[in-house]
Write a structure and sequence with these properties.
heterodimer, A: about 400 residues, mainly alpha, MetI-like fold, three-stranded antiparallel β-sheet, two-stranded antiparallel sheet, 12 helices, B: about 350 residues, 15 helices
């Protein structure tokens, strides 16, 4: 906010002056520095004394010891004989897994809800409003525990609900069809990526042509043709990717992708909770665009879809994106509530490690540092983005 | 401009129906909404009202098949007082009455004067003595026996009361010209906001005892309050900073021009305005903080929700978790919704007359 006016350079003479005017300021700062140093020193000393009294030594050496406890699920191939470092990594990856999937789903659901909240249909509007108010005004812990208890009340594996072909819901969580990781899948994904890049290139060329000649062809049809055609072509050449369906064999399902009840409860809880906040952000963002902008765009004869895309959204996004990022961060931080329902995220694994080793200071400082790093990196990127899209005023 | 006559109920219903059913897309949306309602509402109504049991035992509940509100009736006072000794329950009861009265008084702007502040300052230690005992012939009751709504109220209100002054200091520090002060405030605010509250709670529960000099122990509830206060301070500080930034620079310059010192300028000119324009966002932040009081579940402090949840373990009443969660959700919803409506009302009140 501090803009130095070129006319009155002496308006704010509070940048360090050598003269005695800042004497009081210096004293204040010296006092603060002394207090912080003294506090830090005495905390460190007390900690060493207290830990020694409990037969502990400060240090991160325990990370290389064998953890000895199992972790229910995760991306790494972890066994109880692995080290604490690996156990914590497993927990961290579990946090990332639920956070990334959660952010994607919460954004989709939130944007849809936000648009529904602005719908011309009063029935849809009030239903969405009721949903948002209920979700926003109850604690997340309660919602998580509620979803978990609902899932545990589902039928047993043998009577699993089958809402969609290949999808099974039971006490043991969700079973769904999976794409097998094999060369055919990778070639298809590669083809999809190539198609997307080609589409962007095509759209850019068209835009350049429009600026030059004023004419423009829609890239919608060739774009979709690429997006569907290339993967299909890849499928023909390298073989189609295999979809594996879960099958009930005896007492459990085999094959397919499985989501544990804890992961599923945490995911639903986080997505539902965050989507309600995102919906409000999207709604207020779109409403923040002045009515005159709609009217001006309509007066120019733009089609409704283009008004939204070319006029309203670019302006609304400026309002939407900053609070949206903090919702993403909130979701990531809230995923630490996994400990309440027993999903082995970073905090939950850390908690077990503390109980086993007693190295509370080290473990807690470690996971706080990880969350802090995620937050700081995100806000750094956010600030860069903000500077890029900020209203350029003279 | 003469105010148009209010449309009658039939007129309004007709307008509603027209808005719902003009055009094929709208009709499809409306039908989908109605289908959703038909699918959800009757079973829920049957569960919550028609087949519900209001009186009786777990056996009656299972027989009727619906919601077991008898369970909530049975556990209601437990969820208010927790494990507090039965014959001493009048103490948390009185405390809650004082707390609720003060909170309600504080919502009316007529009462916003120094007497309200004095009432709070007097009430705060009184309520704690009432709960803890040890003075005036009251039997001491250790904090591990405190529980229920009492604890939720204590954490939320004392956390705010202790955190608010800190928040103002941090916000001023972050806008200060003194480099070290500014750095210190920024680091504190960003570090606290960057980590989940439960990591602060873990820190307070497990790490804080290690940081204190030998022989000094801090009560568990006090440790929770330390974590919650710091958390409240960091989040409120950002709201207050928003208010400070929104002040036109003329206000600062005018205060400087009449020769006020830094603290006079802040106390008499800037803060009164900055705090009052941010009251709606302060209330919104407080709603979030209030919901977060439930997180004490991770370190075994029995707030309202945790107490109610622990009642699920009663062998006479096994198998009614949904009722407990719905009841708890209802209580939190009523409180938070009231607060959010209140903040919207304040927002309207504070809006300078425009146009």
């Amino acid at each position: 906010m501090s803009t130095t006016s070129p006319i009155m350079p002496a308006a704010k003479p509070l940048i360090p002056l050598p003269a005695g005017t800042t004497m009081r300021g210096l004293l204040w700062q010296a006092a603060l520095a002394a207090a912080v140093i003294f506090l830090g020193w005495s905390i460190y000393n007390n900690m060493l004394t207290n830990m020694a009294a409990r037969g502990l030594q400060f240090g991160y050496g325990f990370l290389n010891r064998s953890a000895g406890f199992p972790i229910g699920e995760g991306l790494l191939n972890y066994t109880p004989s692995d080290t604490y470092a690996r156990a914590l990594t497993q927990g961290f990856l579990n946090t990332l897994r639920v956070a990334v999937v959660g952010i994607v789903l919460a954004t989709i659901l939130g944007v849809l809800l936000g648009l529904a909240r602005l719908s011309a249909n009063p029935l849809l509007r009030s239903l969405t409003g009721g949903y948002i108010e209920i979700i926003r005004n109850t604690p997340l812990v309660l919602q998580l525990v509620f979803w978990h208890s609902i899932i545990l009340q589902l039928p047993s594996v043998r009577q699993a609900l089958n809402p969609l072909p290949g999808f099974f819901l039971s006490q043991r969580g969700v079973k769904m069809p999976a794409l097998l990781a094999e060369p055919a899948l990778y070639s298809c994904l590669l083809a999809l990526l190539t198609a997307a890049i080609l589409w962007v290139g095509l759209a850019r060329r068209e835009r350049a042509r429009q600026i030059e000649t004023g004419e423009r062809k829609s890239t919608l049809i060739p774009g979709f043709a690429l997006l569907i055609g290339l993967p299909v072509l890849a499928g023909f050449v390298f073989g189609a990717p295999t979809v594996e369906f879960p099958e009930l064999t005896g007492f459990n399902f085999e094959g397919g992708l499985s989501l544990s009840p804890e992961f599923f409860a945490l995911l639903i809880g986080l997505v539902v909770y965050t989507s309600a906040f995102i919906a409000e952000i999207v709604r207020s963002g779109i409403q923040s665009v002045h009515k005159g902008q709609w009217e001006a765009a309509r007066a120019l004869g733009l089609a409704p879809g283009r008004i939204m895309r070319l006029v309203i959204l670019p302006q609304a996004l400026r309002v939407i994106i900053p609070p949206m990022t903090s919702q993403f961060l909130n979701l990531t931080k809230n995923s630490s509530l996994a400990v309440v329902i027993g999903y082995p995220d970073l905090v939950s694994v850390a908690n077990t490690s503390i109980n086993q080793t007693g190295q509370a200071v080290e473990v807690i400082s470690l996971f706080m540092a990880i969350y802090l790093a995620i937050s700081l990196v995100t806000s750094l990127l956010m600030n860069m983005y903000n500077r890029a899209v900020a209203l350029k005023e003279r | 401009m003469a105010a148009p006559a209010l449309p009658s109920f039939t007129e309004r219903s007709a307008a509603f129906a027209r808005a719902c059913f003009n055009g094929p897309v709208n009709i499809a949306i409306s039908l989908a909404c109605i289908a959703l309602l038909v699918w959800l509402v009757p079973p829920l109504f049957n569960w919550a009202v028609v087949n519900a049991t209001w009186n009786g035992t777990a056996a009656t509940c299972r027989e009727n098949g619906g919601a077991c509100w008898a369970f909530i009736r049975e556990k209601f006072w437990f969820s208010v007082f927790g494990l507090y000794p039965y014959e001493e329950r009048w103490r948390p009861g009185t405390m809650l009455v004082i707390l609720v009265t003060l909170v309600i008084c504080s919502t009316f702007r007529v009462f916003w004067n120094k007497w309200l502040l004095i009432a709070w300052v007097v009430a705060a230690p009184t309520m704690l003595i009432l709960m803890g005992g040890g003075y005036f012939g009251l039997t001491p009751v250790p904090t591990r026996l405190w529980g229920g709504i009492t604890i939720t109220g204590i954490i939320a209100v004392y956390g705010l009361a202790l955190g608010y002054p800190l928040a103002i200091l941090l916000a001023l520090g972050r806008r200060s010209n003194l480099t070290l002060v500014r750095w210190f405030s920024t680091v504190v605010i960003e570090c606290v906001r960057g980590v989940p509250l439960i990591s602060l709670l873990f820190m307070a529960a497990i790490m804080l005892p290690l940081f204190l000099p030998e022989g000094i122990t801090l009560d568990r509830l006090a440790r929770v309050l330390v974590a919650y206060t710091i958390f409240t301070a960091a989040y409120m500080a950002e709201v207050v900073r928003g208010g400070l930034q929104a002040m036109p620079r003329g206000q600062y310059e005018a205060a400087d021009a009449v020769g006020l010192s830094y603290w006079q300028k802040m106390r008499l000119v800037i803060l009164p305005q900055a705090l009052s324009i941010t009251i709606p966002s302060q209330v919104n932040t407080f709603i979030g903080l209030f919901k977060d009081t439930t997180l004490v579940i991770v370190i075994g402090v029995f707030d309202f929700f945790t107490t109610l949840r622990s009642a699920l373990g009663d062998p006479n009443w096994l198998g009614f978790p949904t009722e407990a969660y719905v009841f708890a959700a209802g209580v939190y919803f009523v409180l938070c919704f009231a607060m959010s409506k209140y903040s919207q009302k304040l927002e309207r009140d504070f809006q300078p007359a425009q146009r």
